[in-house]
Design a protein that fits this description.
The protein has about 60 residues and is mainly α. It has one domain. The protein is built from three helices and no strands. Helix 2 runs antiparallel to helix 3.
């Protein structure tokens, strides 16, 4: 979350240690990278924009 301090993220996530914030931030970053690559592959394979949008929307809601 751009502009959000580590301490603020720690409070929002309910974590007690900075290490936990960093661990989950890295996991989320990796998941988002895979999601973007897969969405790009779908678009390249000829899927319509709405199909790619739905895939991304559902995938992001599963992460939350």
């Amino acid at each position: 979350m751009a502009g959000t301090s580590l301490h603020e993220l720690m409070e929002l996530g309910g974590w007690k240690y900075n290490e936990m914030v960093l661990r989950y931030a890295l996991i989320l970053l990796r998941l988002l990278e895979r999601l973007i690559m897969h969405a790009s592959d779908l678009a390249s394979a000829g899927y319509t924009s709405i199909n790619v949008y739905i895939y991304v929307y559902i995938s992001l809601n599963c992460l939350i």
